[in-house]
Automatic annotation (TrEMBL):
Its EC number is 4.1.1.17. This is ornithine decarboxylase. Its cofactor is pyridoxal 5'-phosphate. It holds the Pfam family Orn_Arg_deC_N. Keywords: Lyase, Polyamine biosynthesis, Pyridoxal phosphate. One of its GO terms (biological process) is putrescine biosynthetic process from arginine, via ornithine. It comes from Acanthochromis polyacanthus. The lineage of its organism: Eukaryota, Metazoa, Chordata, Craniata, Vertebrata. The modification N6-(pyridoxal phosphate)lysine is found at residue 69. It catalyses: L-ornithine + H(+) = putrescine + CO2.
């Protein structure tokens, strides 16, 4: 389901010492006065800027083209445009969305190897020329609808060390690359580069090493066939939360070394990437309301369980957002599927903790956020917060049971507001 309707042009400036938690406190108070317990996000635009600075420090040669599929919230897209970032779009609607918010066609790569004909035509008529392919059939379609396209051949990677694999579905095997290039030549199409994606939650730098070496091989084959290759796209899959906190720096080291060896700066090849989760993952904090609760007495044998002081009850909480809303990552995203909600209110260290199960609001028992999770006892009406909810959350919300989707409230520090010159785009909330 698309998030395109929620174009909130209001933004709150964090000035006079105000911090994110002040905004959350106030929002919760406001909601309680209007009898509303809907979930909401606070979107911290400073986090996007921080991630971008970390990107350019670590990968100075690699231009990011943000993968819109990850989170297409207008405030995110606008902020990234003001940072000079390009976009990876996967459909006509994503291209439309990027263009409508101010992205220019030369800053868009249509990075989907299997595209509907009408979407290719749309790209053509709107000046989006760079697009990926990995099969002869796609080449034929592109030759019919967009013969001037600048094509990027996506190759498969060995993504067996990634938590979420993509090369099972996309990417040409090295053995078929020669034939694909020949076919492109026969159809009079221009192939300008190579792309790959190592999958999400990549745990080994060797995956990048091998993929960049394979890309070099394709470049060499292509130039023998007369193509002027000038673009290398190293895809997405970057993260810097949970177990991946330091991986970004580690992988950047591997990538830079390989690029300098195989695609040196004076070689005339532009290097881009398609990061999604890296940019947005830590920018969103979700607040959900405890709308119902059920205390279940533990059976005697569960209580003893060989341990002293085993709790005598488990508490089930039912909150206003869940797996069919913002939290589908629990079932679909192997790279980020353990969420850690924490109480919004201050918790005294001496308060007893109880084993808890947190359920989403729908009627389905798959809609479970976490279990065997220790929390102090909460009451109906209290709030839980979840950090790092920016990636593959708002872009995957379904309409199941028609619960309200979480509203998004963007905030920014006064410093970032000035740095990014956001006054052209937003109205300030006093
Ligand atoms: N590029 C392509 C083609 C993708 O399919 C994806 C994710 O599915 C991405 C980029 C973004 O990946 P990530 O969010 O893991 O960086």
């Amino acid at each position: 389901m698309s998030n395109l309707s929620s174009d909130n042009k209001n933004i709150e400036i964090l000035d006079n010492g105000k911090i994110i938690s002040d905004v959350i406190d106030r929002k919760i108070k406001e909601l309680s006065t209007v009898d509303n317990e809907e979930p909401f996000y606070v979107l911290n635009l400073d986090s996007l800027l921080k991630r971008h600075l970390r990107w350019i420090t670590n990968l100075p040669r690699v231009k990011p083209f943000y993968a819109m599929k990850c989170n297409n919230t207008p405030a995110v897209v606008r902020t990234l445009i003001s940072l000079g970032i390009g976009f990876d779009c996967a459909s006509k609607a994503e291209i439309q969305h990027a263009l409508s918010l101010g992205a220019t066609p030369d800053k868009i790569i249509y990075a989907h190897t299997t595209k509907p004909l009408s979407h290719i035509r749309y790209a053509c008529t709107h000046g989006v020329d760079v697009m990926t392919f990995d099969s002869e059939d796609e080449l034929l379609k592109i030759s019919l609808c967009h013969s001037q396209a600048k094509l990027v051949l996506r190759i498969a990677t060995d993504d067996s060390k990634s938590l979420l694999r993509l090369s099972t579905k996309f990417g040409a095997r090295m053995a078929s690359v020669g034939k694909l290039l020949e076919q492109a030549g026969k159809l009079g199409l221009e192939v300008i580069g190579v792309s790959f994606h190592v999958g999400s939650g990549c745990t080994s730098g060797l995956t990048y090493k091998k993929a960049i070496a394979d890309a070099r091989h394709v470049f060499d084959m292509a130039s023998l066939l007369g193509f002027q290759m000038k673009l290398l796209d190293i895809g997405g899959g970057f993260s810097a939360i949970d177990d991946f906190q330091d991986k970004f720096e580690e992988f950047s080291g591997v990538i830079n070394e390989m690029l300098d060896k195989l695609f040196p700066p004076d070689g005339g090849v532009e290097i881009i990437a398609e990061p999604g989760r890296y940019y947005v993952e830590s920018a969103f904090t979700l607040a959900v309301n405890v709308m119902a609760k059920r205390v279940v007495a533990n059976e005697a044998d569960e209580q003893n369980n060989g341990e002293e002081n085993s709790p005598d009850k488990t508490i089930m909480y039912y909150v206003t957002d869940g797996v069919y809303g913002s939290m589908s990552c629990i079932t679909t995203d192997a790279a980020h599927n353990k969420l850690e909600p924490y109480p919004h209110r201050a918790v005294d260290g001496s308060e007893p903790r109880y084993p808890s199960v947190i359920w989403g609001p729908t009627c389905d028992s798959l809609d479970k956020i976490t279990e065997n999770y220790f929390l102090p006892e909460l009451h109906v009406g209290e709030w839980l917060l979840i950090d790092n909810m920016g990636a593959y959350s708002v872009s995957l919300v379904s309409d199941f049971n028609s619960f309200e989707r979480a509203r998004i409230y963007p905030v920014v520090s006064a410093e970032t507001w000035d740095t990014l010159n956001l006054s052209h785009t937003y109205s300030i909330i006093p």
